[in-house]
Amino acid sequence: SMRRIHAVPSHRRMRLTLQLWRLRNYLVTASNAWFPAWKRLDGLASCFELAYTTGALVHAADALVALTELHGFAGNEVEALRAAQLAIAIAKQLPGERIRAETSLELAAKLLATDHWQSASSLLPSRQALELCDAHHRSLATYFDAQQALRRRRFQDAWNVACAERTVTEDVAMSVRWGLTAAAAAQGLHHRREALGAMDEAISAAE
After folding, report:
1. What is the DSSP letter of 124?
2. Could you tell me the CA-to-CA distances from 15 to 10, 49, 50 in Å, in that order?
3. From first to last of its 207 residues, what are the pLDDT tens digits of the chain?
4. Helix 155-166 vs helix 172-188: angle between axes, to the nearest 10 degrees?
5. Which one of 32, 92, 123, 153 is most buried, by most CB atoms within 10 A?
6. d(CA 121, CA 142)
């Protein structure tokens, strides 16, 4: 809870508060911890302002990634792009190529759900920078390519990648994403049984 967070040191409190607001983007309305979009927007904006004004640029970039996602969920395409562009500008100031690459990857993935999905590919890090990223972010880069294939109606390509990845990933969140990607690709290929099977797997992983 917020009262418990206020009891920890300021830098850690900033990180925990940001994580809490980010998690609230995924809560269902029946949850006791659910907040309406405007309240989540206000909370994340406050996190960004505090982080930026105190020089905590890593947290500032993370807050903007979450704002990009929230605006994307709400259909605020212009605001989503604006938040992403500001996050990229801040990410360029971060120490270490790995954290810059991972921030760029997360932003590109968030923009997949918006009208800016085509230009999002310009945010992807170089192959050399990608090799510095952790396994989750490398998988996220592959997921981005599969989603781009879906958008371009290259359903077989998306299906092949999704099927290969969902058999090897140990990341629960990515397992759900790969299941949904496989289901969408199978639907595009008119493979109804495979689509239903992939959807069932995604639901099981989410549970």
Report:
1. P
2. 9, 13, 11
3. 444 444 444 777 888 888 888 777 776 565 666 778 888 899 999 999 999 998 999 999 999 999 999 999 888 999 999 999 999 999 999 988 999 999 999 999 999 889 998 889 999 999 999 999 998 899 999 999 999 999 999 999 999 999 999 877 777 888 889 999 999 999 999 999 999 999 998 888 876
4. 150
5. 123
6. 12
- 108: which residues sit within 8 A by CB, 6+ positions away? 120, 121, 123, 124, 144
Kindly state the tokens that stand for 10.
């300021």
In angstroms, rounded to a whole number, what is the distance separating the alpha carbons of residues 130 and 22? 24
Q: Is 101 exposed, middle or buried (0-12, 13-18, 19+ CB in 10 A)?
A: buried
| Residue the block writes with tokens 């009891």 | 7
Q: To the nearest 10°, the Cα dihedral for 155, 106, 74, 1?
A: 130
CA distances from 72 to 47, 108, 120, 160 (A): 18, 12, 13, 27
Q: CA 171, CA 175: separation in Å to the nearest integer?
A: 6
Q: How many CB atoms lie within 10 A of CB 79?
A: 16
Q: Please give the backbone phi and psi of residue 20, each rounded to the nearest 5 degrees, phi first.
A: -65, -45
Predicted local confidence at residue 28, as pLDDT: 58
